[in-house]
Design a protein that fits this description.
single chain, alpha+beta, Immunoglobulin-like, 5-stranded antiparallel β-sheet, 10 helices, elongated, Fibronectin type-III domain-containing protein, repeat
C-alpha cells in the first residue's frame, strides 16, 4: 500500500522534471523495506512493563518437543546488534512466539510479542551479559520456552561458508570456499575435517588452509567416498566458528567416456547448417552427476561453449566448419579425463551451388573474396576461414553492407606458393559486433572453394602403372593419381607418352591427353607384335610435370588361329554338303537354261499345222547307250521300215555339236505290224551309215544351241526337202502309228518338217 501510494503521489513528472519514473520505483522499494524493518525493530523496542517480566510465563516449561535450539550471535563489524534463531516445537498449532532480551547490569529489557517467524534481530549493549528467552504459545497451558545466556563480546560468529567446491585428482582433494561478505574481512584461515563415509570417527587432525579460500587434503583413496566439514579458525573477530554442514565427496573419476556414434545430417529448412547428434557411454555411471560438453571451432575462434547435461547424448546445430568436441563425466569432486573428437569440415556441401565463391589473390598477404548472391540485404556480419590441408584453419570476421566482396589484408599468416587452400564463407545473424556469441545454432555456411597463391608443375608422376588386356591392336592402361601435395596446382589432365619401336631400330613417340578424372585409358590402333614404351605425366596451368618410370609391353603377334581354321572348315563343309542342291534349285528357279518346248513358238506352229493325234506308243531302245531313259509319247505318222534309214540321218544331224564325233545313231525299230516285204535291218543299217556320213558333214541342221527356233528351222528345211522326198512319199502311204523313242539326253532337241509339207508328215521331239 505504501508503494502504491508513493507511485500515485509522484506519478506527475512536472513536480520533479529531472527525475525519471524508475527513480521513483527504486525509492519506493527502499522506503517499503525500511518501513517493514522499522516495524520489526519497533516491535522489539518495546520496553518491558515490569521489572520481573519473566514471572508472567512461569507456566511455560522447557521440553524437548517444544521450542528449542535457541542460538544468538553477532558480527564483529556489526557490534551492538545480535541475531537470534530457534526451532519451533513439534505440537505447536498456533506457533506464535514471544521474544524477551534482558541485560540486568544496564537495566535493559526489551520484549517482542506475537512473532510468527523463527528469528529476531535486536540492539543491545556490547559488554554486559544478556539473557534471551523465547516463549511459544505463551497464553496456552502447553506453553514451552527456550533460554540463551552469553556475553555480546563472545558472540562474534564467522561462517559457515556460503559456497564450497571440491576437486579430486591423483589422491588429493582441493577445497575451495567462499564466505559471506561480512565474514571475508574477519576470516583469515579455515580448517577441514574428513572421514570415510562408513567410518564413525573423523580424522585425528584437522587440515588448515593456507589462506581464507583454498585448502588441499593429501593421501586420500581416490576410489572412496568421504564426508567433509569446514569451519573458520577462531580469532578476535571470529569468536564463534561453527562446523558447516557435512558434504559428501564422491570418488575420483579416472576413466573417460566412450563416444558411440556421431551423426551428421542436413537440415532442409536451414541451408548451410547441419544437425550433429553425439551419443556416448560412461562405465562408472553411478558415481557421476552429469557430463560437461565443450564445443568450439577448430580454428580456435572464441568462444568455447560449455554445456552441462545429465544424459549421455547431445544435439548441436552447427555450420559446415570444423569443430572440436570434448566430453567429460563429472561429479561434485571430480571431472573425468575428456574424450576429444574433431567434427570435420563438411566437404560435400549439400544443396549448395558450385562457383558461388571466387578468390583473387593479390600477394601472399592479401586476397579478395567475392560471393554470388546479394547477401548484404540479409546479413552484414561474415566470417572467412581458409586452411591448408592438414593444418588448422585461419579466420577473419568482418562487417560488410555495401558490396558482395571483401579484401582481407593483412592476413594472419602469409600464403605459401604451390599450396592448395580451401576457403569457406559463413554468415552470422548478428547486427552489431561480428564476433561469434555462441557456438550452437549461430552461424550458417554460404559456400566454399579452393585457390592457390601460385601454381607450379607437378613434382611427381602417376604411380602403379599397369597394363591389362594386351591384344593385337590395343592395351588397357591403369594408374594411381598424383598426391595432392605434389600436384602444386589444379590438375588439368594426364599426358600418355607412348613410343613405338620399329624393326629397323627406329622409334616413334606419340602423346595422348586424357581428362584429370580418369585413371585408366585404352590405347588402340597399335601394331601387332610390336614393342611399346609408356610414360604418364600430369599437367597444370604451371606446365607438365615429371614423367613416370618407363613401362614396356608388346602387342600380341598374328599367330595361327586354330579356332578360325575350324570355323572356315565348317563353313566349307556346310557349303559342299548343302550347297549343290540349293544352287541347283536356285538355278532352276531363277535361271532356267531349258525352256519348255511345249511353250516354244516352233511347237505351237507345228501343233497348229499338223494337228496330230496320239495313236499308240512304241518303244525305241538305244541299245548301246548307258543312260537312263525318259519316254515321250508323240502322235506322228508311222514311218515305214523301208524309209526309216532315210529319216535317221536327219535325226542324227540335229544332235548338239558338243556330242562326241564317234557317237552313232544306231536305232532299232520294232514294229509289230511290219510286212514281210519291208527292208531288212541289215539294209537299213547300211543305208543309215551312208546317209549319216553325208549328212553329218554337210547338213545345216547342226545347231550350236540346245534347241532351234521356227525361223532357223524354216531356213534349213528347204535344203532338206529334195533329199527327203522319197522318204515323205513312203510315209504318206502308210497308216498312222505311234513311235516311242528313248534317249539319254538331258535337254530337248526339236525336229520338225517344213510347214509347207503335208500335215501328215512326221514330227518328232526327243529328250
Amino acid at each position: 500500500m505504501a508503494l502504491r501510494g508513493l507511485q500515485t503521489d509522484f506519478s506527475h513528472t512536472k513536480w520533479f522534471p529531472h527525475v525519471s519514473p524508475s527513480h521513483f520505483l527504486l525509492f519506493g522499494l527502499m522506503l517499503s523495506y525500511f518501513t517493514t524493518l522499522s516495524s520489526q525493530v519497533q516491535a522489539c523496542s518495546m520496553k518491558c512493563k515490569s521489572k520481573n517480566i519473566s514471572s508472567q510465563y512461569q507456566h511455560c516449561g522447557i521440553r524437548s518437543d517444544g521450542v528449542h535450539d535457541l542460538d544468538c550471535f553477532g558480527k564483529y563489524y556489526s557490534r551492538g546488534t545480535i541475531n537470534c534463531v530457534w526451532k519451533p516445537g513439534n505440537h505447536a498449532s498456533d506457533r506464535t512466539h514471544t521474544f524477551i532480551i534482558q541485560q540486568p547490569a544496564k537495566k535493559y529489557c526489551r520484549a517482542c510479542h506475537n512473532i510468527t517467524r523463527f528469528s529476531q534481530s535486536v540492539k543491545l549493549y556490547e559488554n554486559p551479559n544478556m539473557t534471551v528467552e523465547v516463549f511459544e504459545n505463551s497464553r496456552s497451558r502447553n506453553c514451552t520456552k527456550a533460554i540463551f545466556r552469553g556475553s555480546p563480546t563472545s558472540l562474534f560468529r564467522c561462517g559457515p561458508p556460503s559456497n564450497v567446491s571440491f576437486s579430486r585428482h591423483s589422491g588429493r582433494l582441493d577445497v575451495n570456499v567462499s564466505w559471506k561478505q561480512e565474514d571475508v574481512k574477519a576470516i583469515t584461515y579455515y580448517s577441514v575435517r574428513y572421514k570415510v563415509v562408513s567410518s564413525p570417527s573423523w580424522n585425528e587432525t584437522n587440515v588448515e588452509s593456507k589462506d581464507w579460500s583454498s585448502c588441499r587434503v593429501e593421501d586420500l583413496n581416490s576410489s572412496l567416498v568421504y564426508i567433509v566439514q569446514i569451519r573458520c579458525v577462531r580469532n578476535e573477530k571470529c569468536s564463534q566458528c561453527p562446523w558447516s554442514e557435512a558434504y559428501n565427496v564422491l570418488p575420483e573419476l579416472t576413466t573417460q567416456p566412450v563416444i558411440v556414434s556421431i551423426e551428421d545430417n542436413d537440415i532442409n529448412e536451414k541451408q548451410g547448417r547441419r544437425l550433429v547428434s553425439v551419443t556416448w557411454t560412461f562405465s562408472a555411471s553411478e558415481l557421476h552427476d552429469g557430463y560437461y560438453v565443450s564445443i568450439g571451432k577448430a580454428s580456435g575462434e572464441a568462444p568455447c561453449q560449455q554445456i552441462k547435461t545429465s544424459e549421455p547424448e547431445i544435439r548441436l546445430i552447427l555450420s559446415h566448419s570444423a569443430y572440436q568436441l570434448n566430453i567429460s563425466a563429472a561429479n561434485n569432486a571430480s571431472v573425468s579425463p575428456a574424450v576429444s573428437q574433431t567434427i570435420p569440415q563438411r566437404e560435400d556441401m549439400y544443396g549448395m551451388e558450385e562457383e558461388k565463391l571466387n578468390v583473387t589473390v593479390h600477394n601472399n598477404t592479401s586476397f579478395t573474396i567475392y560471393w554470388k548472391d546479394d547477401l548484404i540485404k540479409t546479413f552484414v556480419c561474415y566470417s572467412v576461414e581458409w586452411r591448408e590441408k592438414g593444418h588448422n584453419a585461419l579466420y577473419m570476421s568482418f562487417y560488410q553492407n555495401v558490396q558482395n566482396s571483401r579484401t582481407l589484408f593483412p592476413l594472419p599468416e602469409p600464403l605459401e606458393p604451390y599450396k592448395r587452400y580451401s576457403i569457406t564463407l559463413h554468415t552470422r545473424p548478428d547486427k552489431e559486433t561480428c564476433n561469434m556469441k555462441h557456438i550452437n545454432n549461430s552461424e550458417s555456411t554460404y559456400g566454399s572453394t579452393q585457390f592457390y597463391f601460385m601454381e607450379g608443375s607437378p613434382i611427381s608422376a602417376p604411380a602403379n602403372i599397369s597394363k591389362l588386356n594386351v591384344t593385337l591392336k590395343s592395351v588397357l592402361l591403369q594408374w594411381s593419381s598424383i598426391p595432392e601435395e605434389d600436384i602444386r596446382g589444379f590438375l588439368l589432365g594426364y599426358i600418355i607418352h607412348y613410343t613405338e619401336y620399329h624393326q629397323r631400330g627406329t622409334s616413334t613417340e606419340n602423346n595422348i591427353t586424357v581428362d584429370p578424372e580418369l585413371n585408366s585409358y585404352e590405347l588402340s590402333d597399335l601394331r601387332s607384335g610390336t614393342a611399346y614404351q609408356v610414360q604418364i605425366s600430369g599437367f597444370t596451368s604451371g606446365g607438365a610435370g615429371v614423367r613416370s618410370t618407363a613401362s614396356f609391353f608388346k602387342t600380341d603377334p598374328e599367330n595361327f588361329n586354330l579356332s578360325s581354321v575350324i570355323t572356315v572348315f565348317a563353313v566349307v563343309a556346310t557349303v559342299l554338303i548343302f550347297g549343290t542342291p540349293i544352287i541347283k534349285r536356285a538355278k532352276a528357279v531363277l535361271w532356267p537354261s531349258i525352256p519348255n518346248p511345249g511353250n516354244s513358238n516352233a511347237m505351237q506352229k507345228i501343233d497348229r499345222a499338223c494337228e496330230l493325234e496320239l495313236a499308240a506308243i512304241n518303244t525305241l531302245q538305244v541299245e548301246e547307250w548307258d543312260t537312263n531313259s525318259l519316254q515321250i509319247v508323240e502322235k506322228e505318222a508311222v514311218i515305214p521300215a523301208s524309209t526309216l534309214p532315210l529319216v535317221l540321218p536327219l535325226l542324227c544331224a540335229a544332235e548338239d555339236e558338243e556330242d562326241a564325233p564317234e557317237m552313232t545313231c544306231d536305232w532299232n525299230q520294232t514294229d509289230t505290224d511290219s510286212a514281210a516285204g519291208e527292208t531288212s535291218p541289215g539294209d537299213a543299217t547300211d543305208m543309215f551309215s551312208d546317209t549319216q556320213q553325208t549328212n553329218l558333214q554337210s547338213s545345216p541342221m547342226v545347231f550350236s544351241g540346245g534347241y532351234t527356233t521356227m525361223e532357223m528351222f524354216q531356213q534349213t528345211m528347204p535344203q532338206r526337202v529334195a533329199v527327203n522326198t522319197a522318204v515323205i512319199e513312203g510315209m504318206e502311204s502308210q497308216p498312222e502309228n505311234t513311235t516311242v523313242l528313248k534317249s539319254g539326253m538331258d535337254y530337248v532337241r526339236q525336229f520338225s518338217t517344213s510347214p509347207s509339207l503335208d500335215s501328215e508328215q512326221p514330227s518328232t521331239i526327243l529328250w
